[in-house]
Amino acid sequence: MRVNIEAQRLREFLRLYADTKITTRELARATSMSRNTVQRLRRHLANIQFDFGDLDQLDDDQLRLRLQLASLEGRRRKPTPDWGWVHTELKDPDVTLELLWREWRAVEPNGIAYSQFTAGYRAFKSQRPLVMRQLHLPGDKLFLDFCGKTMPVYLEEESTPRMAQIFVAVLGYSNYTFACAVWTQQIVDWVQCNIDACDFLGGVPRILVPDNLKAAVITHGHHEVILNQVYLQFAQHYQTVVIPARSRRPQDKAKVEAGVKIIQRWLLAALRHQRFFSLEELNQAIARLLEQFNLR
Description:
This protein is of the alpha/beta class. The protein has helices at residues 5-19, 24-31, 35-46, 60-67, 83-89, 97-107, 114-126, 187-201, 229-237, 254-268, 279-295; strands spanning 141-153, 162-171, 177-182, 207-210, 217-220, 225-227, 241-242.
C-alpha cells in the first residue's frame, strides 16, 4: 500500500495542534511544514468545526473532505534543483549561484525563483558535515611529526633498554613516507631527521609542516609564530618555508597523523618481537620495511 506522506504530516499536525500547546515555529519543525502552511492551517481550523476524536476513524480522503482541504500546501510546489550538483559546480571559483540558477532555469523554466534558490542552497549547505578539504600539489608540502610510540634498543653498557623516538615525514600529494629512529626529540636530532627526510625524498619541499614540538616552534600564538632559531636557519639554508600546524588543530597535519598510525601498525608492530642492540640496526630494519610500505 502506498503511504501518503502528505496525509501523515497532516495527521501529525492535527495531533499536535489538538493535544499540545506549542508555537507555530515548533509545529513547523515537528511536521516538516513551512511556517506559512502551519499558520494557514491554524486559521483554517479556527473557522471550521472539527471533532479531533474522529481523527483515527477517518481515512485520508474522508479526512480531507471533513477538513475541507483541497491540498496540504494549497498549491503545487515548484521544481527545485539537485543541490549536490549546485555544490559541485560552485567548487569552480568563477561559478556563482546566479549563473547556476540561470542555467538551471533555462532547462526548468517553472522552477523556483533566485531568492528561493539561494535560500535552498544555504539550507542544503547547513546540513552537510563540516569538513576541511586540503588539496596538495606534488612536492609542495612535507608533514613532519614523531610517533607516540617508541622502540626499545638494548645497549651493551646499559642494564635497561633505551627508548628510541620514531620520526615520520609524509608528502602531502603522494603520501610517500619516510621514517627513522633517533634518541631524542631535541633540536639536533630534529634537524638531522629533516635533513635525512630530504635526502630520502631526493629534494626539498616548498613547505615544511611540523607539529608544535619545542625543537621546531618556540611560540605559536594567534598573531605570531616564533620558530626555533636553529630550525629557522636550517629552513633558510635549504630555501624552504616552515608553516607549523596550528595548536590543537590535528586537521592541519592530517597526512602525518594518518602516517604515524600506519607506521606504528606497519613498521613498529612488525618489529615488536625483534631485539635491537644499536640505533643503526633499528634504522636498517625500518628502512627495509619502509621500502615495502611505500611500494604498497
